[in-house]
Amino acid sequence: MPSGPALDAETILTATEDVLRRHGPAKATVLDVARALGVSHASVYRHFPSKAALREAVARRWLGRARDPLAAVASDTRQAPAERLRTWLTTLFAAKRALLSEDPELFATYRVLTAEHSSAAADHVADLIEHLRVIIADGVTSGDFASPDPTATARTVFDATVAYHHPAHAPEWQTPGAETALEAICTLLIEGLRPR
Amino acid sequence: MPSGPALDAETILTATEDVLRRHGPAKATVLDVARALGVSHASVYRHFPSKAALREAVARRWLGRARDPLAAVASDTRQAPAERLRTWLTTLFAAKRALLSEDPELFATYRVLTAEHSSAAADHVADLIEHLRVIIADGVTSGDFASPDPTATARTVFDATVAYHHPAHAPEWQTPGAETALEAICTLLIEGLRPR
User: Fold this and answer.
1) Candidates B155, B160, B194; nearest CB to A160
2) Is the four-CA dihedral A188, A130, A139, B178 of positive or negative sign?
3) Coil, strand, or helix at residue A18?
4) Residue B117 has pLDDT above 80, yes or no
5) How far is A87 from chain B (nearest CA, A)?
6) Which among A156, A162, A184 is the nearest to B162, CB-wise?
7) Which residue of A15, A96, A139, A163 sits 20 to 30 Å from the alpha carbon of B171, by its own alpha carbon?
């Protein structure tokens, strides 16, 4: 098996994503990835020391992709903070729901990582809370929101919408009324953030 | 085996609770219950047509017991609606956490029933939302809260605190800061409910 200079980490991650899509997180092996690339499994291990490390790196890459549109919403100062907060929360829900329905095996991988408290999942959550902090801090600056500690408030908002982003609640995401229910939470939280 | 007139449904439910505590929801059988009572399994089936029906009846009984202190909080008009709402939500969390640590096998049974969308679990949630509705409606009457639809608002409040009552989040309940995090959600929701 040739393992020429073409085999870089990105190539391996793309192949792993395909293998995870086909076999799911429980059955996919490093050998499957090596076979898909036509290389020895030693060539894969040279880049990623274990199956866990490889799965973590794949998750880190596609969680990053999933965050891009959310980062764009968080920094879009053309939208007033209250509406930006609502847009961000509904965009996150739409993205999670789309991943679940369009890419169920990758969603299952994400679910495993969440349950295992992986650093990829923890870093992802930290990045999402930072988005919320930016929106809330902008609202405090503009006088739209009151918050003594935007980071703490960001955590509280994330926590209060857990039913719409935590994978444990995925079975409820396709029920009629899920979007309306999230909108109602957004309205109550935004009201709660307004200064008096 | 004698199956005298002493064998009533309550006696069977108490024995089933003990069997569930000892064996857990996966391993407990109707035969275990019959053995514990010294009766034939036919005697048990005379009251409960299946293992599922028996498990459901047990859950219904202890969910009812768990609701009693919450019903007392919901109707305690000596507490102003805002503080009553906070007390109710923190009492629910304390009760769930106590069940998890003191009665893990019964908690596991509850978890199974929730995942199976049993009518006992659904009725329990409906009763809890009715408690919240009473508190919110009292707040609207007293001018402490604004809500065009107290039942819908009750659902939203229940939904926004799901991390502190849904069994899927049980692994996070013993983490330091869980109580403080729930208090922060309560504060934000109560602020959101105040009229302007």
Assistant:
1) B160
2) positive
3) helix
4) no
5) 17
6) A162
7) A96
